[in-house]
Design brief:
Helix content is 38%, strand content 15%. The protein is α/β, with parallel strands linked by helices. Strands 1-2-3-4 form a 4-stranded parallel sheet. It has a two-stranded parallel sheet with strand order 5-6. Helix 5 runs parallel beside helix 6 and helix 6 runs parallel beside helix 7. The radius of gyration is 18 Å and the shape is globular. Bound molecules: zinc ion. The site of zinc ion (ZN) has 7 residues, from strand 1.
């Protein structure tokens, strides 16, 4: 039986091929040179973290190894080839361009590197199509902490929309500050015609899902906590809200603490 396979919630930095990430981390001096692969694996693998907040900290080490254009390109290329070999025919790979500027890359260069890597793989594997979602970030104490970086994320996504980029998201530790402070950023994205999804509801009891609904996204990045409270859940259902969650098999253990696999639409329950 032919089964259509798509992946709409796939983190580039959560899906690195670990032997490559390890070798590159050594080459870029991201980890001490005496680090063994086994030690590296324990550092980055999130299976034993106590909660999602802790697992999110694992992304820092993966972003640290993706600070050169050629490395971002290679990571996107490898992931797209892997997806094609697994039989997927469409995927949306997400990353945050502002997380890759520590060694001088601009956000636009970072986004272009990921697009180029994915497109090179698609030339070799025309059976798969891949779009790139560029994420704004929750960082620091509130939305003000990296406001300019997020504004730039919107700008570069707009510039490359339709040229490999397919949309915008908001990712990171969502309990920093008031979630609703991000609304003007999404209003700006809407003004520019950039489609967006919103990571919301990974933490807490789902209140952020309602905040995200008010910002008019095309989908929620991960609304898994929405089902913890009936009133929130029912409001999501009434919106027929597309719900895209992490697909664990392609992740190297980061962001897989929540036992939900889903990429579909919530529907009103039967009476
Ligand atoms: Zn995610």
């Amino acid at each position: 039986m032919n089964t259509a396979r798509i992946d709409l919630h796939l983190h580039l930095d959560g899906s690195l091929y670990l032997p490559w990430a390890y070798e590159t981390s050594l080459k870029r001096h991201v980890i001490p040179e005496e680090t063994t692969f086994e030690q590296y694996y324990d550092l980055v693998f999130a299976k034993n973290t106590k909660d999602h907040s802790e697992s999110i900290t694992k992304f820092a080490l993966m972003c640290a190894v993706l600070q050169e254009r050629e490395d971002l390109y290679e990571a996107a290329y490898q992931l797209t080839v892997t997806l094609a070999e697994k039989g997927l025919y469409y995927a949306e790979i997400r990353f945050a361009s502002q997380q890759h500027t520590e060694r001088g890359m601009s956000q636009k260069e970072a986004l272009q590197a990921v697009i180029d890597g994915a497109q090179a793989a698609m030339k070799e594997h025309p059976e798969i199509r891949v779009g790139i979602i560029n994420c704004m970030m929750h960082k620091g104490e509130s939305a003000a902490a990296n406001w300019q970086e997020n504004v730039e994320t919107i700008a570069v996504t707009g510039e490359l929309l339709g040229k490999g980029a397919v949309g915008l998201d908001l990712a990171g530790f969502e309990n920093n500050g008031d979630f609703r402070d991000y609304a003007p950023l999404f209003a700006e994205a809407k003004k520019r015609g950039i489609p967006y999804t919103i990571h919301a509801g990974e933490m807490g009891i789902g209140e952020h899902v309602l905040d995200a609904l008010d910002m008019g996204p095309a989908a929620s990045g991960m609304a898994s906590t929405a089902c913890r409270k009936r009133s929130i859940w029912m409001r999501c259902c009434s919106h027929r809200f597309p719900w895209k969650s992490v697909y664990p098999p392609m992740s190297n253990g980061i962001s897989t603490t929540q036992p939900i696999r889903c990429a579909g639409c919530l529907r009103p329950g039967r009476k």
